[in-house]
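Researcher: I've been going back and forth with a colleague about how Beta-phosphoglucomutase might be arranged in three dimensions. Neither of us has a model we trust, so I'd like an independent prediction. The organism is Clostridium frigoris, in case that matters for your notes. Sequence below.
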Amino acid sequence: MHNIKAIIFDLDGVLVDTAKYHYLAWKRLAQELNIEFSIEDNERLKGVSRMNSLEIILEIGNITLDDDTKIKLAEKKNIWYVEYISKLTPADILPGVIDFIESIKANGLKIALGSASKNSMLILTNLKLTDYFDAIIDGTKVSSAKPNPEVFLKGALELNIPPCQCIVFEDAQAGIDAAINAGMYCIGIGSKNRLKKANLVLSGFSNMTFDKLGL
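Model: Here is an independent structure prediction for Beta-phosphoglucomutase. You can compare it with whatever you and your colleague have in mind.
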């Protein structure tokens, strides 16, 4: 891998652990619907859009609802989730992230966000990360959820960098599939067993710099 010009980061689970807040909000909603919802069930929601996540929970509970009710339930979940993430501070940034991003900047690479979250700007603002990004593509700018590559292709387009010169960092299989579908090199953050399709897997960014990737 040579001639890399840009890095595109997913947000949830890569730069900050917001997964726990998604889980708390979905669990709260599931309890209202008398559905048993476990941490294992929550794994199925990683990298999945809000409405599709609700469909999975309803499937677990064997419940069928009309579209209007589903929209209201998804909105209720998001209100709870926003309440949780509104309390985020820079202390919630995952270990090593800032040093890694600064090592990318030192190498002259561009940085974009590629996240399905419609709350990305709120999260980045609370974490004081916004200024690090040359482009921010989130759920308000895309119409297709991962594994569709739209979010990453729009990031590359906004950076004016060809997809083949971009590296994506992702923690969910749907996001890794999206990166592959975009024709980008993909580095998984998490478990090698769970992220088998990634070109490379790291447990996290602690003591990691761009140069140490050896690309």
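Researcher: What would you highlight for our discussion?
Model: I'd start with this: The chain has a mean pLDDT of 94. After that, consider the following. The radius of gyration is 17 Å.
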